[in-house]
Design brief:
By secondary structure, the chain is an alpha+beta fold. It folds into two domains: 139 residues, no CATH class; 216 residues, YycH protein, domain 2 (TATA-Binding Protein). Helix content is 20%, strand content 41%. Strands 12, 13, 14, 15, 16, 17, 18, 19 and 20 form a nine-stranded antiparallel beta sheet that branches. The longest helix is centred in the first third of the chain and has 25 residues. The termini are far apart. Pfam families: YycH. It comes from Paenibacillus haidiansis. This is Two-component system activity regulator YycH.
C-alpha cells in the first residue's frame, strides 16, 4: 500500500514538473512564447520610438475659403490648423449620399462660399478616417478612400454642406447629417481672415506673400546594419554577407535579404517568401505597416500616412512621410529624392503581409548646429517660376517642404516649394 502511494505521489510530481516546464517555455496563454519560430522577428531595443496609427492620420493642409474668391492655407502643427482639426474630430458625420463629381462646379463653390477644406493628398481610406473622425458606418461609403473633405455655408441656407471626395476622382459623398452649424463653420473661417492671402489657381493655391520657414541643421546618429539584422532576421548569426560592385552590402539568410545602400545610410529589406496572411485591404494594410515599423526600427520623428494604394489585386504600397516643424510656422514634409533617401518609410505588401521595407538609417538627435529664417517667394515671383514647369505636365499641388541633404555637421533641411504633377512626379522650386 505504501509503495502504491509513493508511486502515485511520484507520478503527480512528474506531471506537475511537466506542466511547469510547459508554462516556463510558452508562458501564460495570450503572451509571447519564449520559443520562437522562423517566421518570428526579434524586436530591437533602443532604436526609434513606437507610434500609434492615429497620430499619422491628418490632412496635408487645410484650405480656408473666405468667400469672394479669397483663401488662405494652414499647415500641420500650426495653431489654427490644430484648432480646426481638433474641433472637426469631435463632430458627427452621417447620412451619406453619392453623386457624380462633375455635377457641381467645385471651383465656383470654393470661390463663392465661406468654408474649410481638409486635403488628404492621394487619399485616406474611410476605415482609417473613422479612427480620428466620428464618421458613421455606411456600406455605400466605407470602401472608399478620401482625398478631400469640403465643408461650407451656402447662401440662404441654415444647413452646412459637407462633401467627401473619392480619391478615384469620379464621385463625391455628401454627409446630409452633420453635427455642424453655420456659426461653427463661420467661426473656423474667421481664423483665416488675417492670415496670408492665397489665390486658387487651377485647383492649387498660390500665396500672395512670402512664406516664412526655418532652415535647420540637425545633429544626427545612424542605426547600424547589425541593429537592423537583429530586428529583421530570425537568427542573424546565420546570415551571409555579400558586397556588390556598386558598394552596397547585402545580408541574407537565403529567404530574406537586407541591402544596405547610400554609404550605409539606407536599407532595402525584402521577404518575398513571406506567407500571405489576409486580404489586400488598404486600411488594414496601413495598420499592419505601422505595427511592423514599431517592431523593426521604430519612428525617428513625426510622420504622416502619405499613400496606401494597391498596385493590383494582391500587391499594395504604404508610404509614411516624415514632417519637421518649428513652433508657430507649422510642420512641413521632408522630400524623398533619388540622390538622398531620407524622409519616407515605404512598405510593400502582398495580401496583408509585408514583403519589402525601405527606410533611412539616419535619425535626428538632440540639438541643432544651425538655424536661419528663410522666406519662400510668393505672388508673381512664384508664378513666374511655376510657369516654367507648366509644359512638363499638369500641376495638381503646390506646397512648402524641406529638402534634406547630409553635411559634415549633420542633416540640413532646406525650405523649398514642391510642385506635384498629375503623373505623380514632384519637382523642387528653390
Amino acid at each position: 500500500m505504501k509503495e502504491r502511494v509513493k508511486s502515485l505521489i511520484l507520478a503527480l510530481l512528474v506531471v506537475c514538473s511537466l506542466v511547469q516546464s510547459y508554462f516556463l517555455i510558452y508562458r501564460l496563454p495570450g503572451s509571447d512564447p519564449v520559443v520562437k519560430t522562423e517566421n518570428d522577428y526579434i524586436k530591437t531595443e533602443n532604436m526609434g520610438q513606437e507610434a500609434k496609427a492615429e497620430d499619422m492620420l491628418y490632412p496635408s493642409q487645410i484650405a480656408v475659403h473666405l468667400g469672394e474668391d479669397r483663401h488662405t492655407v494652414f499647415y500641420p502643427e500650426s495653431a489654427f490648423y490644430n484648432l480646426i482639426y481638433s474641433r472637426l474630430k469631435g463632430r458627427q458625420f452621417d447620412g451619406f449620399q453619392r453623386y457624380p463629381v462633375e455635377n457641381i462646379d467645385w471651383n465656383e463653390i470654393r470661390s463663392r462660399y465661406p468654408g474649410i477644406e481638409l486635403q488628404f493628398g492621394s487619399g485616406m481610406p474611410v476605415a482609417l478616417l473613422q479612427k480620428v473622425m466620428l464618421i458613421a458606418s455606411d456600406p455605400l461609403f466605407e470602401g472608399e478612400s478620401i482625398s478631400k473633405v469640403l465643408i461650407y455655408n451656402a447662401e440662404n441656407e441654415d444647413q452646412v454642406r459637407v462633401f467627401f471626395f473619392s480619391s478615384q476622382g469620379d464621385v463625391v459623398y455628401e454627409a446630409t447629417k452633420a453635427d455642424l452649424t453655420v456659426q461653427d463653420v463661420q467661426q473656423q473661417v474667421d481664423f483665416g481672415k488675417e492670415w496670408v492671402p492665397y489665390t486658387l489657381t487651377n485647383g492649387y493655391y498660390i500665396p500672395e506673400k512670402p512664406i516664412g520657414m526655418v532652415e535647420t541643421g540637425l545633429n544626427v546618429g545612424t542605426f547600424t546594419a547589425d541593429q537592423m539584422q537583429s530586428s529583421l532576421f530570425f537568427d542573424p548569426s546565420i546570415t551571409r554577407y555579400i558586397r556588390e560592385k556598386d558598394g552596397s552590402e547585402i545580408y541574407t539568410d537565403s529567404k530574406r535579404s537586407l541591402q544596405v545602400k547610400q554609404n550605409r545610410n539606407w536599407i532595402n529589406y525584402t521577404d518575398p517568401a513571406a506567407p500571405a496572411a489576409g486580404e489586400n485591404n488598404p486600411g488594414r494594410n496601413a495598420l499592419s505597416a505601422v505595427e511592423f515599423v514599431n517592431q523593426h526600427g521604430g519612428w525617428n520623428g513625426a510622420y504622416r500616412l502619405k499613400q496606401t494604394e494597391g498596385l493590383d489585386e494582391e500587391q499594395h504600397t504604404v508610404v509614411f512621410q516624415q514632417y519637421y516643424g518649428e513652433g508657430q510656422f507649422g510642420a512641413f514634409p521632408i522630400l524623398e529624392i533619388s540622390s538622398f533617401h531620407y524622409g519616407e518609410i515605404t512598405l510593400e505588401m502582398r495580401l496583408g503581409t509585408i514583403t519589402a521595407y525601405q527606410r533611412s538609417l539616419i535619425y535626428a538627435t538632440e540639438g541643432f548646429w544651425t538655424k536661419n529664417m528663410v522666406d519662400l517667394p510668393g505672388g508673381d515671383e512664384l508664378r513666374d517660376r511655376i510657369a516654367a514647369l507648366d509644359k512638363e505636365s499638369e500641376i495638381v499641388n503646390l506646397y512648402p517642404a524641406y529638402l534634406p541633404s547630409l553635411a559634415e555637421e549633420g542633416l540640413l533641411l532646406t525650405p523649398v516649394w514642391a510642385v506635384e504633377f498629375k503623373n505623380g512626379a514632384t519637382r523642387v522650386l528653390r
